[in-house]
Amino acid sequence: MDKLSLEKIRSEFPILSEIIYNKPLVYFDNGATTQKPQCVLDRINYGYKHLNANIHRGVHFLSQRATEAHENARKAVCDFLGADKREEIVFTRGTTEAINLVAFTFGEAFCSEGDEVVVSVMEHHSNIVPWQMLCERKKMTLRVIPMSEKGELDLDAYKNMLNEHTRIVAVTHVSNVLGTVNPVKELIEIAHVHNIPVLIDGAQAVPHIKVNVKELDADFYVFSGHKIYAPTGIGALYAKEKWLNALPPYQGGGEMIAAVTFEKTTYNELPFKFEAGTPDYIGSTALAEALRYVQEIGIENIAAYEHELTVYATERLMEIENMRIIGQADKKSAVVSFLVGNIHPYDIGMLLDRLGIAVRTGHHCAQPLCDSLQIPGTVRASFAFYNTKEEIDVFIQALKRVVGMLL
Ligand code: PMP
User: Fold this and answer.
1) Choosing from 78, 111, 365, 370, which is the catalytic residue?
2) What structural domains and CATH numbers belong to the chain?
3) Measured from the CB, is residue 207 less than 6 Å from ligand 1?
4) Residue 176 beta carbon below 6 angstroms from any ligand 1 atom
């Protein structure tokens, strides 16, 4: 990213000019949520100004306009993920809701006592708890793929774990704590040898690396809009059509039905069978705008620049004594987690905040991962393409000061 285009990009994100405690904001909490460019903010405004009417079934002009915008947004998500058909895209509130949808409906259709679900040790709680709930409901067992010290999944252990009881594998594409980019294509291939479907949690992947669900041959792929410059409250589930046909509905209500009588209800066609109630058509159209924006910059350009930032940040962090980088996988995304000596991550985060720097501290909703590493959590700096090396310099200088105060 050259300086000029970087300046232009930064000017497109109004919040980046905020002043925090009299200091320019340095926002390194992009793994938690990303900031929104003006075009996305404008799209939300435009939606309420020019196409706000409840979608589907409406005979009037505005309703049809809103329906068209929402369905075009579905096509945009479909194209972004490299899926075949828009029917394979279900809008959800985000990653968490998408995983719950699959865990519940897949559990109802295909799981029974004695079956097993495989997740990995580095999952976010949202890719653990829904499966645990399923295991409790159906008296099943949750199996966990371990990882190496570097933070890479143990593929041999994974292979040995799959058996005739395994019903589904659910793994994250990119770890939100370690930054590890998992070899999901390989994980899927291995599971498919046993005819086991795989869900990939793409929450931390889609903003940073090119994803093609067809190339991966993923059965289910989920992500959240707010982590890719879109508003909160909208996300998507990609699922192969065969699965969506085979799964029962998740929630009941309007939109998801074909016909209702008190005796029997028949369900709507795909994907509406899984979208009960008024959908977030303003959010979906803003998500489509965010995806357009990201594609305009180019996901490969984003990946290359963020890699530069991550390498630079890691190198500069190593200047600090007693620095421990948590997660040293060969393939990493735009996340650097660390600890300094015995200082509690929370103390570092709080003092950095006072210097205008937003990082995240704690277990990052991956408590089992932190337990397995025997750490209380980490300080996590996570980058987006609007961040700069100059911001990293400010961060390192501030961190040195903070560490000096706390040691
Ligand atoms: N999975 C991963 C890997 C995440 O990083 C997150 C968000 N931190 C989630 C799932 C949950 O996403 P959401 O809260 O948007 O549903």
Assistant:
1) 365
2) 3-29+298-406 (3.90.1150.10), 51-295 (3.40.640.10)
3) no
4) yes
